Structure prediction request, 294 residues.
Amino acid sequence: MDLYDSVVARTVERGGTAVALGGLDSGKTSFCRMCAAVAVRLGSTVAYVDSDVGQSTVGPPTTIGLKFISSADDLEPERLARADAIYFVGSTSPKGHMLPMVIGAMKLVEQARAAGADLIVVDTTGFIHGTQGQVLKIHKVEALRPEAVIGFQRGGELEPILGSVRRMLPPEVDALSVDPAVEATSVEERASLRQEGLRRFFEPPLNHWKVKTSVFVPSIPPELDPASLDRLLVGLEDGKGNCIGLGILEHREDGLRMISTEGEGAKALRLGSVRVTEDFGTTGVDLRDIFISD
Prediction:
C-alpha cells in the first residue's frame, strides 16, 4: 500500500471530518471522492462538503455545497452536482469573501454532523498563497474542527499553513506530494466550467418575480440606481438561515425583476459579487463600487 492509499484508508477508518488543502489542480477533489467511495463501500454514511466556489463539484459556482453520499452512484458527476444544501458566498473567488467562506463551510459541516454522517470530507479552493491564503485556511480549519487535515503540495508551498495547524490545532496532519499525472486546467477551461455549472443550475422551468428593494442583504442605499443591480447574482434566503436557491436580477422599466430556481419561501435576497451574462458567463463586481459610500 503506497502513502496515498494509506492516508485514504486512515481517513476512512478514523471517520469524523477531514479537510483537503492544496493549490490549483493538486488532486483535492479526487482525494475527497476516493475517500467517499471507499467509506460508502464499507457501509459508512458520508457527507461531501465542497467549498471550492470557483470550481464547484457540489452545487453551482459561487456557493458552498453539501451532498450526502449513500451509494457509489451519488459520486457520479451529474448526481454529485445536485447539492442537498448550499450556502451562498456570491463570488467565484474567496478573496474579499473570507468571512462567508468560513461561516458557510462551518454551517454545512455542522449540518452534516447533525445528520449523523460517519465521515465528512471537505474540499477547498486553491487559494493558499500569501498572508490572505494562510489566514483563510487556518481559520477554516479552526472553525471546522476536523480530525484530519490532508495537504497536497508540489514543493513546500503548504508548509506555512500545515506548520501553523500542527502548532496551533489538534488535527492529525498529512502532507502528500501532488501526483505528476495531475493535469493543469487553463484559465479558459475554468471559466467554461463555471459557465456550464451556472447554465445547468438555471435550466428551465424558472420562476419570474418582481423584487422589492427592501429585501436585499446588505441593505441598499435609497439613492442607489436600481439599474446598477442588473444581472447581479443573488442568493434566496428562507429566513431560517438556509439558502434555497439562486436568482439573477433584471432591471426593467417597471422595476427590478428576478429569474430564479426557487421563489416560494424566500424572505431575503443576499447580494452576490458576480454579474451574470445572458450566456451565463460571469464577471466580478465589488459592491463597494455600486453602493454610495457613507
Q: What stands out?
A: The mean pLDDT is 95. The chain has eight helices and 14 strands. Helices lie at 3-14, 28-41, 77-80, 98-114, 130-144, 159-168, 187-201, 287-290. The longest strand covers residues 243-252.
